[in-house]
Every structure is written in structure tokens, then in C-alpha cells.
Design brief:
By secondary structure, this protein is α+β, with helices and mostly antiparallel strands. It has helices at residues 40-47, 51-63, 69-72, 96-103, 109-128, and strands at residues 15-19, 26-32, 35-38, 73-82, 85-95. α1 (40-47) crosses α2 (51-63).
Amino acid sequence: MNAPKPPELPGKGQFLVYQAEDGRTKIDVRLENETVWLTQQHMADLFQTTQQNISLHLQNIYEEGELRRAATHKEYLSVRQEGNRQVKRPLEFYNLDAIISVGYRVKSAVATRFRIWATQQLREFIVKGFV
């Protein structure tokens, strides 16, 4: 019996492009079900660290019970060019909850700016009561 195939990535219309203030970091952000989804490599680019570092943080997040993998992780098929042929390969994506959790663990200048920004947003929400 074959395992079910992961769904394919939809057309480009369901992606946003994030570009850092310095213009150097540019990331395609997948939008689905009122959240964003990034691969480990996209998170590494976003927080200016390595994919291995992101993987380690995600592993710890799941092992410590901070998040459930099943609720924050999805696999999608992505078409990739390999030589002269296009091949569908599964890619792992992580939702906004996982991205935020990773952002609070990564040690980089960009991650520090992210934490400052996130804290300001939370403070404003609590003080002003925005929804």
C-alpha cells in the first residue's frame, strides 16, 4: 500500500515576498489557512543563521512540548529542476507559531530585532487592546 502523496504547492498567487530593510534578504512566504509557512532554509535566511541551527531549535521545541509537530508542520510537493528534467520533491514547511518560537531561540542580530519588534507588538496589543 502506498503512502498518500503530500499536496502540491499552489500557484505563485498564494505567496508573499518578504524583503529585509537592508534589501539583501528576500524570502517567498507561503500563505494558507490564515498563517504563513516557511521551510527551514527560509527561516535560516530570515534569521541569518544556518539551516542546521533552525533544525536543532525545531527539534528542541517539539521535544520540550512547546509546540506539537503535527499542528505546525506540513509537507508539500515542489517541482525542482534536476538536470534536464523537472522532479517533484517533498518540502517541509513550518507555520507562524513555529517561526515565532524559533525566532525567540536563535542568537543573531536579526533574531534580536525580531524579538524586540514582537515584544513591542504584544505590548501595544495588551495596552491598547487591538485585535
